[in-house]
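Input structure tokens:
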């Protein structure tokens, strides 16, 4: 099934905006070697759940994310800590490195996967800083697509403040009050 031309344009525009936002944020390296995730192969999901979809993949043996990023790796994704470690205070984002001046790219910037280091480090062979994740492996396209769609839909976590779910046209969309 061919992709809707409007959707193709929107994805291209989002990619261009995301890369320019990454550069404007002070990233030292332009992401390169990023995987394509065509909607014809990996349909866009509007119902991605962190607990049901994202966490199980991050914790899977295949992806090995918790080997480096468990509590000993300074990035606990436990139920109690995942939200603050990925999204930060008031869910506005946490700098990827401990020093925001050295690396201002946020781990997860809700609604902006191309400005979120979690997605860029999974999706690009050469992310803006550090290396591709998981270390020494190619991440599954399923994980990349789910992380992209989760971030694009607002990166809601259990008990996210202010999230209102609406059903529109058969799809669940997420609308949040403006800050």
């Amino acid at each position: 099934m061919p992709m809707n031309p409007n959707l193709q344009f929107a994805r291209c525009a989002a990619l261009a905006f995301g890369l320019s936002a990454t550069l404007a944020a002070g990233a030292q390296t332009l992401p390169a070697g990023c995987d394509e995730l065509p909607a014809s192969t990996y349909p866009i999901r509007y119902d991605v759940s962190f607990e049901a979809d994202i966490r199980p993949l991050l914790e899977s043996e295949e992806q090995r994310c918790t080997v480096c990023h468990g509590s000993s790796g300074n990035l606990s994704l436990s139920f109690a800590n995942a939200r603050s470690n990925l999204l930060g205070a008031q869910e506005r984002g946490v700098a990827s490195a401990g020093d925001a001046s050295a690396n201002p790219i946020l781990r997860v910037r809700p609604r902006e996967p191309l400005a979120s280091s979690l997605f860029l480090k999974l999706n690009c062979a050469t992310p803006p800083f550090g290396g591709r994740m998981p270390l020494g492996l190619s991440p599954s396209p399923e994980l990349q697509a789910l992380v992209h769609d989760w971030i694009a839909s607002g990166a809601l976590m259990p008990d996210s403040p202010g999230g209102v779910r609406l059903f529109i046209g058969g799809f669940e969309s997420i609308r949040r009050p403006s800050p």
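DSSP finds six helices and four strands in the chain. The CA atoms of residues 47 and 60 lie 21 Å apart.
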